[in-house]
Input
Amino acid sequence: MRYAVLYSSGTGNTEQVARAIYAALPAGEARLESVGPDTAVPGEEVLFLGFWTDKGVCPPDVQKLLAKLSGKQVALFGTAGFGGSPAYFDAILQRTQALLPAGNTVLGGWMCQGKMPAAVRARYEAMAAKTPGDPKVASFLANFDQALSHPDQADLSAAADFARNMAAKAQG
Ligand SMILES: Cc1cc2nc3c(=O)[nH]c(=O)nc-3n(C[C@H](O)[C@H](O)[C@H](O)COP(=O)(O)O)c2cc1C
Output
């Protein structure tokens, strides 16, 4: 079987996950590539497509690639700044999966939390200064701090398990 692991990663979180997935696939059968605006449709039958969450869905470069696919077996993976709820990850995966044209098969999806830049915390702190005690801002700050350690070793190990499960599910 031939696998391509394609990913979009602005700050490295999704790339870390992509590398863990790539390393878990059978040696010599997989390829790793970063997605850009002009990424061509890969020749491999099975695609692991990785993305960072951009306003609730995969970013434009990945959307563009998804729209061009046909007859592929696709496993989706991603990272998101907000975590803590499987339903949140599921909703992002569903929105991303909906962009895949009919005629492709979705093998499955997996996501974990990914740290955000310090500028985001500074923005939350400015909000907190304006509206002291606002529980929503407090939850943003707590989430930011929780995200700081992700993806962690447990996430990367779960991503590798996901990769092996998807490879076992793929039809040759
Ligand atoms: C412009 C922008 C939009 C984002 N939108 C979301 C979002 O809607 N939901 C979310 O959970 N995280 C969002 N994030 C956070 C990133 O998806 C998250 O930090 C991710 O792990 C970054 O992955 P990367 O390091 O591979 O770029 C956003 C980040 C940026 C820069």
The pocket of flavin mononucleotide is lined by residues 9-15, 52-56, 79-82, 114, 116 (CB under 6 Å). The helical segments are 13-24, 60-68, 86-97, 118-130, 135-147, 153-169.
